[in-house]
Amino acid sequence: MVTQMKTLEDYKNAYKKSVENPEEFWAEQAGNFTWKQKWDKVLDWNFKEPNIKWFEGGKLNITENCLDRHLEERGDKTAILWVPNEPDADDRKFTYKELYTEVNKFANGLKKKGIKKGDRVIFYMPMIPELAIGMLACARIGAIHSIVFAGFSAQSLADRIIDAQAKMVICSDYNKRGAKNIPVKKVVDDALKMGCDSIDTVVVHKNTGGDIEWNDNIDLYLHDMLDGVEDFCEPEVMDAEDPLFILYTSGSTGKPKGVVHTTGGYMIYTAYTFKNVFQYQEKDIYWCTADIGWITGHSYIVYGPLLEGATTMMFEGVPTYPDAGRFWEIVEKYKVNQFYTAPTAIRALMAQGNEYVDKYDLSSLKVLGTVGEPINDEAWYWYYDVVGKRSKPIVDTWWQTETGGILISPLPCITDMRPTYASYPLPGVQPILVDPEGNLIEENGVEGLLCIKYPWPGMLRTTWGDHERCRQTYFSAFPDLYFTGDGARRDEDGRYRIIGRVDDVLNVSGHRIGTAEVENAINTAPGVVESAVVGYPHDIKGQGIYAFVITKGQVDDENAFKKQIIDMVRVEIGPIAKPDIIQLVPGLPKTRSGKIMRRILRKIASGDMSNVGDISTLLNPEVVEEIKKSAPTL
Ligand code: WTA
Q1: Would you say the CB of residue 500 lies under 6 angstroms from ligand 1?
Q2: Which tens digits make up the pLDDT trace of 428-481?
């Protein structure tokens, strides 16, 4: 088990050591795990190519660390506690022993179907235990899992299958989410019609038993795959730098890219940050409400907690079903100790009123966490006052898909809290602020672009199939620095507050969406000439999506036309990316080199018409006035 800091002194010492002697610091943590062979070298790196290698030559299997090594001491402890969508349905519990057996069987099932080390397996599944079991089964045999959030469209799923050249898709028949019953297998069927030739098998978990189409050549029920398999599977020997998973995420240009995380460093980093940020104790019940389709679910529902032998809860449903008290009902029922959610959920529940919270006994809570987007003052105080009764520390954890784990966060009851500040870097993390020219900003009480100047074990290594894209995206803006894409403020005492993305990436309800992706989808709709998408402040979602669209000639039925656009975005990306506001415009403000001036559009979208800034360098300044005139009043 990794070291747990208990006092401010511990944090200061750990931080100091991690900066002065990072290799020794991380080697010490690495020594707490099961290795089949010790590493040759702790760290080899440069941010130019980039080339980042932690614990190279070390041999291990992450599932031995998540499962096998806990069997003796906590084999009968609940590893996964699954809470169903329907409040009156039965929950499911897997002890470490049971989870171990399920993972071994699933791994043998995958092997039987010809999946081997290095193959890519895509999951398109709801929040059910089979998803966690399946990903661990991949890790057991060295297959690379890539989980696609089950809200993405068939087109998005197909894009990811093709990019990863996956051999297998694992899905359910249907998903239950709130009052909805979502036809998951149908989306997979549609995706496979879009040129996913690499797929040999679609494994279907019978979740609801609803009707699905069946293709004997490719479809296989999970229970049939597992029929008669042995319950032990020898863990594949992996190099510390062998890929563990690919997770697709949006950037400012083009299609989503596959962020690649490797085995050893990711393992150490997620375990260390889980144990410390949540101050997990052996008997605690820990609950992260994220979906496993996002990085938060990977690192802080599955890997981090299981590595530390925790009881981790998995919730199938949504915060507002059957009503806005669902989270708190679950906290009371299972006596949850650590609760980790997103600002967008907090804001949505806050809007429903305090009575949904006050009905329940939340005294089991020890730590409240938030992640995914900037938390505003009002939401922070509501979480602190109403949920935490002013006595529970809030950890505002800042990190990214690319960082693998939390980089900046308070440590509960150890470091101080300042509302809306992610505050201090965790041990091993060396954040800096630079100005747009890349000059280091040394003073405090300033804003700048957030970069990290030294590698940490959980960071991405590459983007799947395109290392140059990784270099371009993260390591080229400023030499020898990892650029996060976020702007941040550093206060007088060195605490960081994340302001938000400074690139063309939106954060809608905590989901990352590239403006270019949405624009490409909109431009595919009939009658559209060009579009520009920007974010605007939204009370619940944090950011809403505002699309400015140039049409071919006059549009007869504006509502029908806008609906077509929205449908196109649903089809191309998924409902999470659909525009909240569409404004039809005669033109878009452009520079002389033809670049859209998004700064101006952002101002208009936020309703701040009076101050759009300098437009004298525009090719078509007159269009600004026209857009302003026809902007809807929010
Ligand atoms: C934003 C989610 C403010 C940020 C783990 C980052 C945050 C992006 C916070 C990554 C936070 C994440 N405060 N902003 N505590 N946490 N973000 O890849 O803009 O889905 O770059 O990873 O979310 O989103 P991603």
Answers
A1: yes
A2: 999 999 999 999 999 999 999 999 999 999 999 999 999 999 999 999 999 999
Nearest to 408 by CA among 435, 428, 391, 380: 428
Residue nearest to atom 10 of ligand 1 (CA): 400
pLDDT of residue 611: 84
Which candidate, 222, 221, 171, places its Cα nearest to that of 196?
171
Closest ligand 1 atom to residue 374 Cα is 3
Distance CA 353, CA 519 (A): 36
Show the tokens assigned to 617: 């360098």
pLDDT at 380 over 80: yes
Residue 31: per-residue pLDDT: 98
* Model pLDDT, residue 474: 98
Buried b (16+ CB within 10 A) or exposed e, 44-78: eeebeebebbbbbebbbbbbbbbbbbbeeebeeeb
Cα–Cα distances (Å) from 239 to 133, 242, 335, 620, in that order, read 22, 5, 39, 56
pLDDT digits (tens, 9 = 90+) for 78-132: 999 999 999 999 999 999 999 999 999 999 999 999 999 999 999 999 999 999 9
- Exposed, middle or buried, 436 (CB in 10 Å: 0-12/13-18/19+)? exposed
pLDDT at residue 208 is higher than 70: yes
**Rounded to the nearest whole angstrom, what is the distance from the C-alpha of residue 373 to the centroid of ligand 1?**
5
pLDDT for res 284:
98
296 lines ligand 1 (CB under 6 A): yes
Structure tokens at 284: 């605690």
Q: How far is the CA of 451 from the centre of ligand 1 (A)?
A: 14
pLDDT mean over 42-58: 98
Query: Which CB contacts under 8 angstroms, 24+ apart, belong to 616-624?
Result: 617/591, 617/592, 618/589, 618/590, 618/591, 618/592, 619/590, 619/591, 619/592, 619/594, 620/587, 620/589, 620/590, 621/589, 623/585, 623/586, 623/587, 623/588, 623/589, 624/589, 624/600
Six token digits for residue 21: 């002697």
Provide the strand spans (E) within 210-294: 219-221, 238-239, 243-249, 257-262, 285-288
How high is the pLDDT of residue 634?
Answer: 65
- DSSP helix/strand/coil, 292: coil
- Residue 633 in this model has a pLDDT that exceeds 80: no
Query: Which residue has 């950890």 as its token pair?
Result: 395
Please tell me if the CB atom of residue 87 comes closer than 6 angstroms to any atom of ligand 1: no
> Is residue 487 lining ligand 1, measured as CB closer than 6 Å?
no
Name which of 497, 406, 412, 413 is nearest 450 in CA terms.
497
The average confidence (pLDDT) of the chain is 97
DSSP 584-600: EES---BBTTS-B-HHH
Atom of ligand 1 nearest to the CA of 396: 15
- Point out which residues pair with 315 in neighbouring strands: 83
Rounded to the nearest angstrom, the distance between the alpha carbon of 398 and the centre of ligand 1 is: 6
